[in-house]
Write a structure and sequence with these properties.
The protein is 41% helix and 21% strand. The chain is an alpha+beta fold. The strands form 5 sheets. Strands 8-7-6-9-10-17-12-11 form an 8-stranded mixed β-sheet, with helices on both faces. A 4-stranded antiparallel β-sheet has the order 1-2-3-4.
Length: 552
């Protein structure tokens, strides 16, 4: 561009706090022979890269748009998911829950919590993601993070802060008189943990025999939002953890009125008796099969009272203040009936093989084999069997095994398939029958949390830490990641409502994360000028990001 006094150009000054572009023309003064500059205006509010682009335009050296040399993408890193989840974490105040003041370890903790949702794996693998994602940079950590400083030391601080963090989460999500959901799971370990006191053999809920494990207890509010967790020794019995959790709720979180919801294996009759004297405590649980059979035997309950649509409530004259809600699940009923038929069939097949045994043997050996078979399938109560001994010989090839199915017992058991009783000591004026049943069914939210922690998204295992404190810190960090995931589900509830079913189902939390992770931060070069450019979000991505930014 030319003016009467010379070429109009853009001069960039970087000596100020923010770069400034000066629009000038320059010409040689004929009298003095010096170059004289004339200023025509200023350009402010642009970045250095943007001013550089304008400078190229004034020089007329921008490559034509159609040229393959017009634009080069030098590198791309994931930006959308990391940025959105960090913003969400700050929006719900998670960074202030971790610590009241801004600290480098808090930023590193947020990176690990968000990183657990986007990238599963070891802490070292998360550090190695630095060239591929903007996550660490967005948390103020430039370059490749140091796993000792930014991960392991941060885990130690998290464990140190766990009681205070959980107290704040409880204050935000639990009120006096509210339902508190509590459940237990286990996670198994591979490798040697000789120095650990908590990694040991126990009842494995994942059916992984031969592996050591730890037990994890999770506290949630009525909506399934996690507020606290604890890691127990691998052989810890569920029921033995209940008293400690109630003390924690009352003493640490200052809740004087609690409705504690746990499953039948946790709130056993003996445990409920121990807790009965605690003021302000009420419980909701389910009766064991033995307790149900006792009510039937006493004539208080009949199978026809169980209905899939209408919940019948009864009381026990021997237990004042207790309410029993009779429920039936048709899906469970069908599954239990089919399972029983299959196991009885397998038992009969096994008995037939034992009966056809042709080698010389004794009655005692045959009886032991039958006992082992019936114990394996747990169908002994439905099968009547006997061994007819061949004369007086202790050993014979001709012992006859005979059995029959007690169809009457099968029918009685089948009448109770899918039936369960929810018991509570919450007064009727405080909770209706439907509210009691809904409260117990809310335990399904805790089970969903365990599925997410163990398999679906957060993948709590394999656990790469060997010391007990680091194991506990890792589990706590994963719980905080699920706390963030819970808020994702809340804010995207309307989005998931539009999801299809069966083969038409498209969206999961993982799918949403992968979708917005496609928004990249690209390093672009144009005529030697480098600048960052964020991928423009499409309509679907914009909808997800908008929902994540809006309060539930």
């Amino acid at each position: 561009m030319r003016t009467k006094s010379g070429n109009l150009h853009l001069e960039i000054q970087t000596s100020r706090k923010n770069p400034v572009g000066l629009l000038r023309t320059s010409a040689r003064d004929k009298a003095s022979g010096k170059i004289v500059h004339t200023q025509h205006g200023r350009i402010t509010g642009c970045s250095l890269d943007e001013l550089g682009m304008l400078q190229l335009a004034f020089r007329g050296s921008v490559t034509p748009v159609g040229s393959p040399e017009a634009l080069r993408i030098l590198s791309s890193r994931e930006f959308g998911a990391s940025n959105a989840l960090l913003q969400l974490a700050k929006d719900i105040g998670l960074h202030r829950v971790l610590y009241s003041r801004s600290q480098p370890w808090v930023d590193a903790a947020l990176a690990m919590i968000v990183g657990r949702i986007i990238y599963q794996g070891s802490k070292l693998s998360l550090c190695n993601q630095a060239p591929n994602t903007c996550l660490w940079e967005l948390c103020g950590i430039e370059g490749r993070p140091d796993v000792e400083e930014h991960c392991y030391a941060t885990l130690d601080r998290l464990l140190e802060r766990q009681p205070a963090i959980q107290k704040q989460l409880a204050a935000k999500h639990l009120d006096n008189g509210t339902l508190v959901l509590y459940d237990i799971t286990s996670t198994y370990f591979e490798g040697e943990y000789a120095e650990s006191e908590i990694v040991t053999y126990g009842y494995n809920r994942d059916k992984k025999k031969g592996y050591k494990q730890v037990v994890i207890g999770l506290l949630c509010n009525a909506e399934g939002c996690p507020v606290g967790c604890e890691v127990f020794k691998g052989n810890t019995n569920d029921a033995t953890t209940v008293a400690g959790k109630i003390d924690e709720l009352r003493d640490s979180y200052d809740l004087k009125q609690i409705v504690f919801v746990g499953d039948r294996g946790m709130l056993t009759a003996a445990r409920r008796k121990d807790l009965s004297g605690i003021e302000g405590l009420a419980t909701i649980s389910a009766l064991t099969h033995g307790e149900l059979a006792d009510l039937i035997g006493r004539g208080l309950v009949q199978p026809e009272l169980f209905d899939e649509k209408n919940i019948v409530e009864i009381s026990d004259p021997e237990k004042e203040g207790e309410r029993y809600c009779l429920c039936r699940n048709p899906v469970t009923a069908a599954s239990e009936s089919e399972t029983r038929r299959r196991l009885i069939a397998l038992s009969e097949e096994g008995l037939a093989k034992i009966a056809d045994y042709k080698q010389t043997t004794t009655v005692e050996i045959l009886g032991a084999r039958i006992g082992k078979l019936l114990a394996k399938y747990k169908m002994g109560k439905f099968i009547v069997w006997e061994i007819q001994q061949d004369g007086v010989a202790k050993k014979s090839r001709n012992h006859r095994v005979k059995w029959s199915i007690d169809e009457e017992k099968v029918k009685r058991e089948q009448d109770l398939d899918g039936c369960y009783i929810i018991r509570t000591d919450v007064p009727e004026e405080s909770m209706s029958t439907k509210e009691v049943v809904a409260g117990y069914k809310s335990l399904g939210d805790v089970e969903r949390a365990f599925r997410s922690l163990k398999t679906a998204l957060l993948e709590i295992r394999p656990v790469y830490h060997k010391s007990d404190d680091r194991i506990k810190a890792h589990v706590f960090m994963c719980m905080l990641a699920y706390h963030l995931e819970w808020h994702i589900l809340q804010r995207l509830s309307s989005f998931f409502e539009k999801n299809g079913e069966g083969s038409d189902r498209r969206w999961t939390v993982k799918g949403v994360i992968e979708r917005i992770a496609q928004i990249q931060r690209n390093r672009v070069s144009l005529q030697g000028i480098e600048f960052d450019q964020i991928t423009e979000a499409d309509d679907e991505q914009k909808e997800i990001l908008t929902l994540l930014k809006s309060a539930a």
